[in-house]
Amino acid sequence: MTSNALSITPQQDQSTALFAVPILKRIERESQDEYAEMQQAFELMGWGNLPDELKIEIKDDVKFMVEELKGRFSSCDPFVKRRRETIHYWVSCFQDGICSLSAAIKALEVKPL
Fold this sequence. Notes:
With 113 residues, the chain is mainly alpha-helical. The chain has helices spanning 2-44, 52-69, 78-95, 101-108.
């Protein structure tokens, strides 16, 4: 009876692993594609040399700028426009040496509700 219980456990783990492998590979592939697309967007905007900490802070904003340029949606919202202006302002200030990296990141942090 003990040997039966032991033989079932590895088979269940193996079937779970076999099920998860294609999903994990798809997630990895999609992540690589998204990363490459984001790097290209940063390069096109002249922001390719920004430190990763700053890129992470504005990643979602840049992602949605790209989505809008692809025609997936249109945002006429004044708050979206203001956020984009804020991003451009602080990134320019950082690139021009007017402010520190930590100041730009702090200014661009999205505050939780």
